[in-house]
Design a protein that fits this description.
CATH topology of the largest domain: SH3 type barrels
Distance between the termini: 38 Å
Oligomer: single chain
Number of helices: 17
Structural class: alpha+beta
Strand content: 15-25%
Shape: elongated
CATH architecture of the largest domain: Roll
Radius of gyration: 29 Å
Largest sheet: 8 strands, mixed
Length: 428
Amino acid sequence: MTTSATEPSPSGVARLWLTEITRSRIVDRAGERLGRVEDVIVRLGTGGYPPVTGLIGRLAGRQLFVPSDRVGEVAGGRVQLTGETLSLLRFERRQGEVLLHNDVLGRRVISVDTGRLIIAADIQLTAGRGGWKVAGVDSSPRGGLRRLLPPPLNSLRHDGRYFVDWSQVEPFVGHVPSSRLLMPIRRLRRLHPAEIADIVESASHEEGEEIITAVHADPELEADVFEELNTEHQVEFLRTRSDAEAAMVLAGMGSDDAADLITELDQERRAPILAQLPPAKQAKVRALLSYSPESGGGLMSPDFVAVSESATVTEALAAVRAAGLSPQVLADVFLTDASGRLVGAVPLVSLIQARGNSGVAKLVQRGDTALEAGDDLPEVARLMTDFNLSVAPVVDDGRRIIGVISVDDVLEAMLPDSWRRRSEADHG
C-alpha cells in the first residue's frame, strides 16, 4: 500500500488518516471504479503498533476482504488495487480482528499518558517495515467534522497538539463481536490505582467492567483500584460477582477499606462473603465492624508496626521490611513497653538516618498523642492537626495500640460528596 502526499511528515514516513481512506473509491489497475472502502482491518492482540491486515470493500453490493498486499496507491479519495483478480468471497470477521472505523473511530479510548478518556476522532496509519500500522489517534474536537464529510473534502489539517501515540492508548474491545480480545493490563499498570478508578467512574458501566476485568489479572492492583473507587461503583461491580470472587477482592484490600465496603453490600451477602475471607483478615474486619464508621475505631487500620522500646534501629527496620504494609501506615514505627503499652512513636525517616546499633527509644520525638476508639472524627482531625501527624495510633483502655489512622483516611472521611462528584464531572 503506497500513498501520495496527503500531509507533510517531518520524519519523511508515509502516513494516512483513517477518515481519508474510508468511503474512498476502489479502482482497478486501469482506474475503473469497482466500489468503495468501508473499513480498515487490524489485529490488536499482537502488541505494539497494530498491523493493518486489509480493507473491507463494498463491491457490487457485497462486503469483500481486500488483503493489504493487493492495495496499491491511496490518494485523492481513491484506493487503487494491484493484480488482475480479487476474491469475491464475502467478508467474515476472523478471530482477533478489529475494524478501525466500526470498532474504534469516534469511540472513547484510554489515554494512559494523562489517565483520562479521550475520543478517537481520527486514527493515523503509517508505513513501516512489514507494512502499514496504527500510529496513534487524533483527539481533536474537529474530528467529528472529518467523519461527516466525504473524501477529499474531509482532508482538514490535523492539529498535532491533539495527537496521541498509540503506545499511550488503550482501546476498549469488549464490544467487538467474536474478537475474544481482552484489554491487556500492561499499559494500565503505568497508571496509579486512583487514576484507574477515576477512569472507571467516568466510563460507562460496560467500559468500567472491561477495565475491572483487565486488572483482575493482577489481584493486588485490582484490590488497590477497588479501594479507590467510590462506594457506588464498588457495590455495582461486586453485585455481578460471586461471593467467592467478592471475598477474593476484599482479601486484597486494606482491612479498614474491606470493612467499609462490606457494610455497603446487601445484608444477605455480608455474612457469606465475610466467612470466605482468610481467618486473619476476617478477624480484623470483624473487629472493625464493631465500631462506628466515623469514630477512631471505625477510621483506623489494624495494620501497623510496633517494636519493643528496647529494640535497636536495625531490628526496627527489619520489622518494617517484613510487614509489607502501605507507606501511609509505615510513616511511624511505634514503641511499646514490656506490658504492651504504647510508649511513643519514631518517624521512619529518623530510623533510616540513625545508626543501626542505636536504641530506638532515643529517637522518640513525641510521647502520648494517642486516640481512643470512641473518639469522633472532629477529635481525630484536631489531634492530628495539632501535632502535625501523618499517622496517629489508636489505643484500648489498657493503652495498648490496636490500630492507626492515616491522614488520607481522615481526608477521605471529611471530603464532601459534592467535591467527588465535581471531580467525576471534570473527567467525563
